[in-house]
Amino acid sequence: MTPDDDTAPLDAADAMRLIREQQASTVRRLEPDPRLHYWPWGFAWLIGFGVYFLRFSPDDRTLVAMPAWLPLAVLFTLLAAAAVVFGVGSARAYRHVAGESSQRGRWYVTAWGLGFFGLSVVIGRVTDSLPADLAGLLWSALSVGLTGALHMAGGAIWLDRTLFRLGVWLTVVNIVGALAGPGWHALVVAVAGGGGLLVAGAFARRRHG
């Protein structure tokens, strides 16, 4: 056995380790920080639905006095801000990505847009016939339900267990909140839904490296 034979296994191991490190570095550069996907929405839900609960609590109570329009304004503003943060972060990360991954992403984003547009049109046609508290519950429950379904679909498309499990969690949270009734739904979604998004972002970040 020559000296070169003794060092060859070590050289091969070092080469494989270097390849894996470079691959991981490339993935980190191309994929957005997963916290950009989860945390903006998590804070938006936690604060937005939390404010909604404080104004429209169960049994028509008001825990914190504020104008009736303010909770929805806060929620929609936070959701819009979350969409901007996520969109900018994703655009920067995926600007060099092409092919199937890029097409899947575009179709997935289109599904979100058309899904919520269609949902808004349908709910808008029926809420005038409902009491205000049930109309609010219908809007929030169906929106959260669609969000959970789309998260599960995204997890299936990209074989992302964190995304799929989050979709299952949001669906369960939404069902529990809807069964609890108006007012309680906002609290459950704020704490368990928003909190779930924040936890999912932390776990995804740990896996991302």
Question: How would you describe this structure in keywords?
Answer:
209 residues; mainly alpha; 2 domains; 83% helix; elongated
List the helices and strands and how they pair.
Elements: H1 3-30, H2 34-55, H3 70-93, H4 100-126, H5 132-158, H6 161-180, H7 184-208
Compact overview of the structure:
This protein is mainly alpha-helical. It contains 7 helices and no strands.
Please give a structural write-up.
By secondary structure, the chain is mainly α. It folds into two domains: 1-30; 31-208, no CATH class. The protein is 83% helix and 0% strand. The chain has seven helices and no strands. The protein has helices spanning 3-30, 34-55, 70-93, 100-126, 132-158, 161-180, 184-208. Helix 2 runs antiparallel to helix 7, helix 5 (132-158) runs antiparallel to helix 6 and helix 6 packs antiparallel against helix 7 (184-208). The longest helix is centred in the first third of the chain and has 28 residues, at 3-30. The chain is elongated and about 70 Å long. The model has no long low-confidence stretch (mean pLDDT 85).
